[in-house]
Amino acid sequence: MRVLTVVGARPQFVKAAPVSRALAAQGIAEAMVHTGQHYDRQLSDVFFEELQLRKPDHHLGVGSATHGVQTARMLEGIEAILLAERCDWVLVYGDTNSTLAGALAAAKIGIPVAHVEAGLRSFNRAMPEEINRVVADHLSALLFCPTEASARNLAAEGITRGVHRVGDVMYDSVLHCLRLAEQAPSPLAALGLSERGYCLATIHRPANTDDPERLRGLIELLAELDAPVVLPLHPRTSKALAAAGIAAARGAIRAIEPASYLQMLILERHAAAIITDSGGIQKEACFFGVPCITLRPETEWVETVECGWNTLVDADPDRFREAVARVRDWRHEGPPFGTPAALTPARDLFGDGHAAEAIAAILRSTSAV
Known about the structure:
Layout: E1 2-7, H1 10-25, E2 29-34, H2 45-50, E3 58-59, H3 67-84, E4 89-93, H4 97-109, E5 113-116, H5 128-139, E6 142-145, H6 148-156, E7 163-165, H7 169-183, H8 187-191, E8 199-202, H9 206-209, H10 212-223, E9 229-232, H11 235-244, E10 253-256, H12 261-269, E11 273-276, H13 279-288, E12 292-294, H14 302-306, E13 310-312, H15 317-329, H16 346-350, H17 355-367
Parallel strand pairs: 1-2, 1-4, 2-3, 4-5, 5-6, 6-7, 8-9, 8-11, 9-10, 11-12, 12-13
């Protein structure tokens, strides 16, 4: 059996690492395509090194472009690889343009698609990621759901065949990589930070970076906090700040270069609070029991809100300040955005840390049917 894995962005490298290990352990051959959607070293190469992820067999080098141009270039490149490679499955992850291109190219050639992290929905079709994940799900023969809610979302759309709730491979990855991260030099020492003495923030989604006034407002809110705010700058955010003439290094903000995955795990684990528009970081905050304030009006990870560790504030200053106040007043009696009874261990929401092994076993058994 042979699987072709399509990745292209930082979150996909994190998800692919445990699955690649599980495929190898179960004797399943794998070829990997890196589309080049993320090409900055700190968003790509360093992830392969830290995650001990095998080097890609094919690198398309697509780079940045509009959604249409980027996806078209990926489609062309992936199709050529699929016609040359003999594979039984195409494995795609998450909700990026790489996911969409991989699923479309495989489906048009008649190669079955397996989607890891299937069934997520924000119910906001203005988000490119929502379009990507919906299309990928409807093209897939195997749908690996991280949570019960994601499986219910698929059933509501009439997708019931090939659906498996396996748990979240990002939880697998965190459990594996945290041990590695703790053996490396701590980024807290380099930044002069103490545990629970700072906030960690990330801003990268187009909805927050492409509107200069919205971006300015978010930076001003971060700058007014009374604790240091570590802000690793995504390349998109750096460009948007420069274009709008907005200085990130102001007030409480400590703007730094993009952090590696292992550095981010340590920064997340020891933060007093996490402020983000990232889907994956919302989950990781929940894994670590760190309060999360999400700069979006909705989330595909509803479980993080329901269990009380996450609250959605969008870009509303009053809601942001209220959420900060609740974090500040929190004294370990329970999650800050819910009652103590709402707290559910991450393993109950996101699996037992063995999602990757389950995915590999299902792929192997399905090929034999």
